[in-house]
């Protein structure tokens, strides 16, 4: 990021609520045009960090600059250049889909004609043109989420903040939303998002930090994190309801490490097929075997010892 001023710059950023430390001294930089993610379980400090970046919650300690400005002194100027998609949809149920966009646009000083034109662009982007005259309440969860993101774009922001954008959506709606966000990336829009879905972080983020207990425990691109904290391949072994802890010793030495989950054993190896052959050579008989590439879930298991979705 040498020579380029980051849109978000934080050093030693802290957020306390009484005696509870939600964010514990994190350092972040987000470059223009980047899709940057905060990955972690519920309670990791992701949303508290996003609220500080969006200038609705002041830091308890540390340095924070957005567009080079101090949120404590220039919050309104910063908020005028942000687009915010909160964790929970807060659309106006008494307005139509189109009116949710045009009314919000007026808050940013757009004329009625400009607001109508901008709303039509965003209805097309969100694939909601055929529901433009509908009230919000009958919309599906995916439609409401797309409308919330479209509303966040109404002021043509320099930075869009998305707090767990696909939580609660079915797989089809999630993938459609990913496609919309990818289009924003292609336009050069800077995205900062939080998620506890590992596949979402891999799909959308150029770079991310893994948070746990209010701290950053790892940082990098999805592929670099996988290369640093996991093996190229993972073998998933299931043993038909048998006590899994008893298989750890017999599997010792096959691959780099073994993780025992409630329903399966993960065997980390450079060559998954060779590892499976060694499992069989040792006369172990799993009920099912799956060889796959490593993922961010494996990174998180290595860093924290638990799965992300909690």
From TrEMBL:
Pfam families in the cross-refs: ABC_tran
Membrane among keywords: no
Domain ABC transporter: 8-238
Membrane topology: Peripheral membrane protein
InterPro entries, alphabetized: AAA+_ATPase, ABC_transporter-like_ATP-bd, ABC_transporter-like_CS, ABC_transporter_ATP-binding, P-loop_NTPase
Presence of the UniProt keyword tRNA processing in the record: no
Record GO terms (molecular function): ATP binding
Coiled-coil regions listed in the entry: none
Protein's cellular compartments: Cell membrane
Keywords: Antibiotic resistance, ATP-binding, Nucleotide-binding, Transport
UniProt cross-references to PROSITE patterns, sorted A to Z: ABC_TRANSPORTER_1, ABC_TRANSPORTER_2
Family the UniProt entry places it in: Belongs to the ABC transporter superfamily.
Protein name: ABC transporter ATP-binding protein
Organism: Nonomuraea guangzhouensis
């Amino acid at each position: 990021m040498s020579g380029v001023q980051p849109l978000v710059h934080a050093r030693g950023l802290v957020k306390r609520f009484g005696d509870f430390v939600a964010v514990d001294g994190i350092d972040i930089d987000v470059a223009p045009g980047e899709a940057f993610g905060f990955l972690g379980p519920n309670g990791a400090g992701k949303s508290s960090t996003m609220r500080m970046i969006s200038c609705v919650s002041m830091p308890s300690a540390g340095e924070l600059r957005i567009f080079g400005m101090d949120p404590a002194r220039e919050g309104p100027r910063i908020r005028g250049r942000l687009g915010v998609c909160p964790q929970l949809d807060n659309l106006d149920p008494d307005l139509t889909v189109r009116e949710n966009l045009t009314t919000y646009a007026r808050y940013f000083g757009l004329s009625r004609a400009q607001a109508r034109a901008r709303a039509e662009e965003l209805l097309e982007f969100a694939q909601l043109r055929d529901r433009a005259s509908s009230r919000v309440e009958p919309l599906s969860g995916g439609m409401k989420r797309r409308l919330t993101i479209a509303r966040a774009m109404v002021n043509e922001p320099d930075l869009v903040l998305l707090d767990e954008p696909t939580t609660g959506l079915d797989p089809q709606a999630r993938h459609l939303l990913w496609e919309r966000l990818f289009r924003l990336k292609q336009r050069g829009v800077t995205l900062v998002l939080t998620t506890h879905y590992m596949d979402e972080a891999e799909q959308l983020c150029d770079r991310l930090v893994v948070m746990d207990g209010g701290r950053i425990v790892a940082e990098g691109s999805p592929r670099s994190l996988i290369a640093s904290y996991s093996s190229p391949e993972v073998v998933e072994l299931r043993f038909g309801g048998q006590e899994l802890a008893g298989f750890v010793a017999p599997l010792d030495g096959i691959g780099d490490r073994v993780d025992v989950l409630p329903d399966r054993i993960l065997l980390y190896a450079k060559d998954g097929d060779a590892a499976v052959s060694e499992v069989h050579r040792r006369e172990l008989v799993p009920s099912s075997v799956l060889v796959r590439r490593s993922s961010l879930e494996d990174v998180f298991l290595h860093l924290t010892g638990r799965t992300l979705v909690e």
